[in-house]
Amino acid sequence: MARERRLDILGIAASARKDSTSGAALDVVLARAAELGCRTRVIRLAEVRLPFCDGDKTAPWPEYPAVAELRRSVSLAHGVVLATPEYHGGMSGALKNALDLLDIPHARGKVFAGISALGGRSNSNALNQLRTSVRWLHGWMLPDQVAIPDARAAHAGGRFHDPEVTGRLTQLADELTHAARALALNTAPVPPQGGPDA
After folding, report:
1. Residue 2 neighbours by CB distance under 10 Å
2. How many angstroms separate the first and last alpha carbons of the chain?
3. Ranges of each domain in the chain
4. Which of 34, 45, 65, 95 has the most C-beta neighbours closer than 10 Å?
5. Pairing of strands 79-85, 140-141
6. Which CATH class is domain 15-187?
7. Are 107 and 74 in contact (CB under 8 A)?
8. How far, in Å, CA of 85 to CA of 151, rounded?
């Protein structure tokens, strides 16, 4: 009997705020994915040095090794969780820039999940922007998504006050893992694209 491939799940945290709600939500999703047997890792955009995208998706950016690491990490992942605060009705500029530094070969066929944290009422503005960007990168966005309203009051110490939020994040991890495994069983592993600076 063939051994089941172990899944790699990557989280990308967009917030620059320490102990952010979107970061705490991402941690819940990745912890659940690890419980399900996945290898997990996270890129926190506030901790890496990325250039502003100039439209040349093939640029190696040798002075910015974080670009190669971002591209390689997405290429090797079976599933990617994008977690962003919502600023002025959209995803964070840091996350949009990171997605702009990717190209189709890095994201094609990957399963993506979206999380947003809002200062006020719940809406889907940032999540809809994530869907648009992922679609342009030829990734698969899960139909489910999680928007967390009143973000600053939503959690303490990484624990969410409302068990429904934790439940939805756990469900998102379950769905991501299920979809990523289904795709992985039907496709060959995809190596990083474009050489050492992919």
Report:
1. 5
2. 34
3. 15-187
4. 95
5. unpaired
6. alpha beta
7. yes
8. 9
